[in-house]
Write a structure and sequence with these properties.
The chain is an alpha/beta fold. The protein has 29 helices and 32 strands. The strands form eleven sheets. The chain has a seven-stranded mixed sheet, sandwiched between helices. Strand 10 and strand 11 form a beta hairpin.
Length: about 775
């Protein structure tokens, strides 16, 4: 929580947060709850909108407004468009506009008519009239007051015909000159009419824009945009002058025309990218599907008759924009698992801006025209949630990750078992019960659930922080309390929920125990055996784990100092198990090979084991079996053993001791508790015992025992009833002790090996005494 407070409080670039911890520890819900508290006291960030850029239509501009202002501006612009249509249409229907237009038209005619009259006089003076035809203006020769007929033209002399042609050229030249002047007058008139229309339109919309300018006077960017709208509207009057009965754009005669028509009023609308209008404080966003587009936004297209269209109104924001000014919570694995999402997130955090770009345009073989919206400045604190291994990999392999996520919030899998932690766990249970409408717990129910949380952690001083499991147990206990008609969840309800859940998942455990009971899997719980001992292991199957005994056996013979693990040789032993086995070899060499070589060959194995053997918790078991085989002293089969060992014989702590003890206890109980059965564990594991009531009761009644040992000597004495022995000043062990018997066996092996010779042919032959008996004469043996 201190790391989280630091990460949230510091505003420097790169101090984003990575929350690591085991799944089910409540890391996401705790972080989300804390961020909600912090965000509530922070200012609400601005809205962000896209508007049309009148200079670059493919580059929409971005504007910021106070929270709720984006939605309000969009509504204001819709109102402006509607009222502008009404005002402009009304202005062009007034008598004042009609009169001014008539005046301009009359002035144009007054300037145009003299030119046309002068042209007519010029043509008549040269024997021509000008007629308008569909093909344009033509000159026609006349005779008197009527046009000349073709046959009359044919009767003209050459001189008269040349004169007519010369006059025709003069008239056509004058026509071209006159109509150029007329065209110039008409263009001037059209400009005057257009200017009149723009003046009328500007006059009509100016009160609307003036009101908007006053409303948004504190936002210079909005004022600039409104000014550009005021300049642009008069240039697109057809969209405002044509209207239907409701004041909208004119209806098209067909769907195709409607689809292809261009409504320039869309450019005055506002596209709200981020709307914080209903928000109090800063936003806290949780993006459960962090794809590229869900993170940075996208540009959408609409299909119309096989053609794709888009504009700035089709630009949609993503989680980064919505979380701007606040916090964004993401599952790290989900971000990494979505193509291009991680690169987009890193780019946005590095540049501190979010740029909306479609992937298809970035990776297209040929560039296509599309929108390029202006980026939105980014001020978002990103919180990644993931397992510790993912943090370690990213920190080691990704330089940008180290630069951008400088705060690690590491949720521990456990807390100290204190009054404060018990109170906090009880508060969590109460909150869960209230949210899910479950039965409340009494003191005994809470106590049993707290004990189970410690049992999950295998520690008498720790409580598990797997809050999801705590919540599941509380839910199931409430169910069983209801089945018993209890008003409150009691201790028995919690224990029943625990037992019922284990029973639902214990099919494999039951089948294995049946095989032990009927002798298919050999596990002895009474008597003694040389070189054989019950080891203990933990089997994990999803949400259920249990302890099972297995027979460990050792065999020794004369050899060259080899110590072999059958599981290792058959590649069924894992690396940790192999390490533990080699440590056993080191112990033997250090203990017994100071004066004599280890002239033995020993093999060790887990009998009836057909899966990989992993872990070093059986190394002490293997060592006890080996010492028994060397000393020839039997081991008690009513005692199971767990614990690792170092090269000096110290027994070290292992995991899962509670499950291992309970697993052997169940086997013994099914065969009948004799009172001398039990389990031997490392002394350093005592603090990890969280045993079931059945085991605790059996120990209390003297029907089952648990021994805690610190070294191999303590353990071998319990297993054999024979003293282990201590080395005296002369380096020897007391007669009859385990170490003395082992040393004697190894010494005898070494002596036998020393008397074993090699014949002239290089092949081994009998020992000296046996050779003499066969040949009848003594021969000095050559040692190997």
């Amino acid at each position: 929580m201190e790391a989280l407070q630091f990460g949230v409080g510091i505003d420097s670039p790169g101090y984003n947060i990575f929350v690591s911890g085991v799944t089910g520890s409540g890391r996401t819900s705790i972080v989300h709850s804390y961020l909600e508290q912090v965000a509530g006291s922070r200012p609400t960030p601005d809205d962000w909108v896209h508007v049309h850029d009148f200079d670059h239509a493919d580059r929409p501009k971005v504007l910021s407004l106070p929270a709720g202002g984006g939605r309000e501006l969009a509504a204001d612009m819709e109102t402006f468009i509607r009222e502008a249509r009404q005002q402009i249409a009304h202005s062009f229907e007034t008598e004042r506009y009609a009169e001014r237009r008539r005046q301009l038209v009359a002035e144009l005619e007054q300037r145009r008519d003299p030119l046309l009259e002068e042209l007519g006089k010029f043509a008549r003076a040269r024997g021509f009239v000008i007629e308008a035809t569909p093909g344009g203006m033509v000159t026609v020769p006349i005779k008197g007051e009527r046009p000349m007929k073709p046959e009359e033209l044919q009767k003209l002399t050459d001189a008269e015909r040349q004169a007519v042609e010369q006059h025709a050229i003069e008239v056509q030249t004058q026509v071209a000159s006159t109509f150029r002047r007329v065209g110039q007058l008409e263009r001037e008139g059209a400009e005057l009419l257009g200017k009149l229309d723009r003046e009328i339109a500007s006059f009509a919309i100016e009160p609307l824009l003036h009101g908007l300018r006053e409303k948004y006077s504190r936002h210079p960017d909005v004022i600039t945009h409104l000014d550009r709208i005021g300049q642009d509207v008069p240039d697109h009057l057809p969209d405002f002058r044509q209207r239907d009965g409701q004041g909208g754009a004119a209806e098209s005669s067909s769907p195709f025309e409607a689809a292809m028509a261009t409504d320039h009023t869309n450019r005055y609308r506002v596209n709200v990218i981020v709307d914080n209008g209903g928000l109090t404080g800063a936003p806290v966003m949780v993006e459960t599907n962090p794809t590229y587009y869900n993170l940075v936004g996208r540009i959408e297209y609409r299909a119309t008759f096989g053609t794709m269209f888009t504009d700035f109104r089709q630009v949609k924001g993503g989680a980064l924009q919505r979380a701007n000014g606040g916090f964004l919570i993401l599952e790290a694995a989900d971000v990494l698992g979505n193509p291009f999402a991680w690169q987009a997130l890193v780019r946005a955090l590095s540049t501190r801006e979010v740029r909306i770009e479609n992937l298809g345009e970035q990776y297209s073989a040929s560039p296509t025209g599309s929108l390029s919206p202006a980026p939105i400045p980014l001020s978002t604190k990103v919180v990644l949630v993931g397992p510790p291994i993912l943090y370690q990999l990213l920190h080691r392999l990704d330089d940008e990750f180290r630069e951008l996520f400088k705060v690690r919030v590491d949720f521990a899998p456990e807390v100290e078992w204190t009054a404060e932690s018990v109170e906090a766990l009880g508060a969590f249970i109460s909150r869960w019960v209230a949210i899910n409408n479950l039965k409340h717990f009494d003191r005994g129910g809470v106590a049993s659930l707290v004990e189970e949380a410690a049992r999950w952690q295998d520690d008498q001083r720790k409580l598990s922080t797997r809050l999801r499991d705590v919540a599941d147990l509380a839910t199931e206990a409430s169910y069983w309390a209801g089945r018993q008609s209890h008003q409150l969840v009691q201790s028995d309800d919690v224990k029943r929920a625990i037992n019922e859940k284990a029973r639902r998942s214990s099919l494999t455990e039951e089948r294995l125990r049946e095989m032990i009971d009927d002798g298919t899997i050999r596990v002895e719980t009474e008597g003694t055996r040389i070189g054989q001992l019950n080891g203990l292991s933990v089997v994990e199957l999803g949400d259920h784990r249990f302890g099972m005994p297995s027979r460990v056996s050792a065999s020794v013979a004369l050899g060259r100092g080899t110590l072999e693990s059958i599981d290792r040789e058959t590649e069924m032993g894992g690396p940790i198990h192999n390490k533990g086995f080699l440590i056993v070899s080191g112990y033997l060499a250090g203990k017994y090979a100071q004066k004599w070589p280890l002239a033995m060959r020993a093999t060790l194995t887990f009998e009836q084991s057909y899966d990989e053997v992993e872990g070093d918790s059986a190394s002490s078991t293997e060592l006890y079996a080996l010492l028994s085989a060397l000393a020839g002293v039997p081991l008690k089969q009513n005692i199971a053993v767990t614990g690792s060992v170092d090269q000096h014989g110290s027994v070290q702590a292992v995991g899962g001791v509670t499950d291992k003890i309970e697993g052997f206890f169940k086997v013994c109980r099914s065969r009948g508790l004799s009172g001398d059965q039990g389990v031997m564990i490392p002394a350093s594991n005592v603090r990890h015992l969280m045993l079931s009531d059945d085991v605790v009761g059996a120990v209390r009644d003297g029907k089952f025992s648990i021994w805690a040992v610190a070294d191999v000597d303590e353990g071998i004495e319990i297993l054999t009833g024979t003293p282990a022995g201590h080395r005296s000043a002369d380096g020897e062990y007391a007669a009859g002790t385990i170490h003395h018997l082992v040393a004697q066996r190894l010494q005898s092996y070494a002596e036998l090996q020393a008397t074993f010779g090699v014949g002239p042919n290089g092949k081994g032959h009998l020992a000296l005494s046996e050779t003499a008996a066969v040949t009848g004469r003594r021969r000095k043996a050559r040692p190997i």
